[in-house]
Amino acid sequence: MLALRASLDKIPIVRGLIPGRKCRILSRPRASLLPYFTTAGRRLRALREQLDDLADIRDIIARAIADEPPAVPNEPGVIRRGFHSELDELRAILTDGRQTMRRHGGPRAKTNRNCVT
User: Cα dihedral angle (17, 23, 24, 25), rounded to 10 degrees?
Assistant: First the structure.
């Protein structure tokens, strides 16, 4: 998810590098290169116009991923607290369940993700 966020953050930068309508190099090339530059210029301008910077997706990912997510993606904590209420509720049940098992099972009770011993 972090790599996806980093990649999506580069889209506006790439879009800014593609020449727009006011590009001096593409609008006044040497006469011998004119056919190449006009075709390339049109293609680049069309590409620039079609390129979506995915601002809505970037915003959702930025709000969803924790500031310091765990290094291993299957560990809890990748999704930021407060992003999704049902996920927060499940986290609370997991945490409270472990604490309850320790309280009622005595000091030797060990909790694992799938079982209590």
Answer: 50
Q: What does residue 116 show for φ and ψ, rounded to 5 degrees?
A: -120, 130
Is 117 within 8 Å of 109 (Cβ atoms)?
yes
Q: Which two tokens stand for residue 73?
A: 């993606």
The amino acid at 22? K
Residue 96 neighbours by CB distance under 10 Å: 10
Instruction: Check if the beta carbon of residue 29 is closer than 8 Å to that of residue 44.
Output: no
- Tell me the percentage of the chain whose pLDDT exceeds 90: 21
- What pTM was computed for the model? 0.59
Closest CA to 8 of 79, 49, 62, 50: 62
20-25 mean pLDDT: 57
